[in-house]
Each structure stands twice: as structure tokens, then as C-alpha cells.
Predict the structure.
Amino acid sequence: MTPSGFDVRPNANPTASQIRDDILESPGFGQHFSDHMAHVRWTEDAGWHGNEVRPYGPLTLDPAAAVLHYAQEIFEGIKAYRHADGSVWTFRPQKNAERFRRSARRLALPELDDETFIGSLKALLSVDSDWVPTPAHEGEESSLYLRPFMIASESFLGVRPSKEVDYYVIASPAAAYFKGGVAPVSIWLSSHYKRAAPGGTGFAKCGGNYAASLAAQKEAAAQNCSQVAFLDAVENKWVEELGGMNLFFVYKDGRIVTPQLTDTILEGVTRDSILEMAADEGLTPEERAISIDEWREGAASGEITEVFACGTAAVITPVGELVTEDDTIRLAGDTGNPIAKCLRSQLLDLQYGRREDTRGWMTRLA
Ligand SMILES: Cc1ncc(COP(=O)(O)O)c(C=O)c1O
């Protein structure tokens, strides 16, 4: 039993350490998985029960399991970082736990309490901490990406909330998300497809949102763009976010603007952290609506000096250009993205334990 109350069933055939070391040297993203997974089951009658860490492996699901038909599913994304003294830490897990509960409510899934959510990360790391890469040098961003998720597992084809649910956490060693590191990326503006609509599920981290974004992502790839930016579904005018990251705009007078939260935007933990850190850097954070015309005009006039995307996977990545059906929006002056780079290294230094954690944002996992 782990200190966080999970029974442990060890993997009888764990990955050989030589093979694991080879994977950790060049992990890519989301391709390899650690030896165990955490699991908690929920039924309408018994509630949450059966907390365990068990060998990583395929799930047995009845073909009628509700998740396979109606996508009643939510997930999270959070990383474990190894510090220089060998200890393993994660960043603001309370925020992910709270977002997971918000997502659960929207998808009519049972809420998992924050203690069990954070406990499941600790339980998995208590057996799989060897899977957290040790960065070879300061600039290397390797970590263990943790993926908690919850699925409707009842075998029943009626459309109603499932009476049986399973929660798992799997772990995958990860290198930097974009190979170019802080090299600016090109973004495609989806003018046809929408990611989210008022009253819908945009603020929830549910698989369906990502399934719905893939056709636009395919368009982006055809334009040699690595991500998609979405506009609002009502007026087709307001910048919302990317398929998997929030957006920030830096103005030459020191304002740093991000679209305000609505039910069509996912509340990013990185977004929230940047808003809190901005004042320390002498920046004035603003959460408000920003239109595609403001982006276009601000980029042309030099009012906007930087645009960047942010999220757990890619930290902070400058946006070099926005490709639309009509034009390509580029910043008039190439400033070299000093604000994005500064905030990025502040975040990374904190996450990797190279800077004092004055806000109590880090939680030790192992
Ligand atoms: C749609 C979307 N927006 C924003 C984010 C950034 O959120 P976070 O900073 O919590 O990783 C993510 C990634 O989780 C996302 O999928």
C-alpha cells in the first residue's frame, strides 16, 4: 500500500533498465509508457473504490462500453520533473485536480476528489520514478508526462450518464514538444471549423473537443503549420485559443493580453501562472476579448511586439506567423521574443527546481 492509499500490484515483467535508459535518452512525445498505471473504479452504488497501481497494459472493455459510443470521457495533462538532487516534483496539481472536477461535471461523470487525484500521481510515481528522465543539461526539457483520464465503462447503449466509470493515470517520458524549442511556430487560422460554442464543452478537457479539432489540424498540416487557432463560433471574430494551447499578446507599452475565460476556452494552468508572474516582470496583465482585426492591425503597426502560445506540453512557444485564407499575419518588427523567452525560462527554472518556489506551486511526488 502506498502512503496515498493505493494497493500496489507490481509488474512481473518490467522494462529492462537498459531499454528504459535508451528510451529516456530520446523519448519523443507520448510514444513510450512506464511499467505501471494507477486505477480507481466508480459505480453508482459503491462510489469510488479499489485504488490500485497495477501493471501497464491493455484494458478489457465490452464493445458496448458507453465511452466507445458517446465519448463520455475526460482527461488531464501534467508533468513530473526531476530536480538536481534526484527528487521528483510536479507543478500546481491542485489546478489540474480542480479542472478535472469541472470537466467531470460538464460530462456528467462523477467528480474525483482532489486528494485522490493528487494521491494517484504520487502512487504511480512511488513505483515508476525511474521513468522520470534526468535532464542532461539546463536547456533540456525532458520530463515524465502524466495522463490522468476517466471513461464511462458501463456496457449499455442507451444515451444517459454511465453507472460505471474507471479512472486511470498512465505516464510517458517526454522531450520538448516542439523540436525547435523556442523557434517561432506557424499557426493556421481555422475560418471554417469551430472548436467550441457557448453552452458546449470548450472549457472542459474532454476527448470530443480534440476529435472535433482534427479536421482543422489536418488543414493546418497541409499549410505547413504546426497548430490551429480558433475564432469564436458566434461572430467569427474573437480570438479564442489554439487546439491545445492558450494565446498571449505582448504590447509595446508592457501590456500582456490573453482572451478572458468563457465557457469556450480551456483554463490553462500555464496561462494562469503567466498572469500571476507577469507583474514580477513589470508587465501589466489583461484578460479581455481580442479580435482577429486587433491582431492583424497590432502586428502591422508594431503595437503588438510578441505573440506566444502556452501549455504544459510546450511551455511557452513564440508564434512567428498566423496563416489565414486571405493573408499571413506577421509582426512588423522582429523583436526576438524577449518576453516569451524570459517567462519561459522563469517557468522552467521553477519547474526544474533551479529557482526558489515563492508561491508554493511545486508538489513533491517522489
Ligand atoms: C485546448 C487547450 N487549451 C489550453 C491548454 C493549456 O493548458 P495547460 O496550461 O493547463 O496545459 C491545453 C492543454 O492542456 C489545451 O488542450
User: Anything to note?
Assistant: The domain at 185-351 is CATH 3.20.10.10 (D-amino Acid Aminotransferase; Chain A, domain 2). The helical segments are 17-25, 66-70, 93-106, 114-128, 207-222, 269-278, 292-301, 338-351. Residues 77, 241, 244-246, 266, 268-271, 311-312 surround pyridoxal-5'-phosphate (CB under 6 Å).
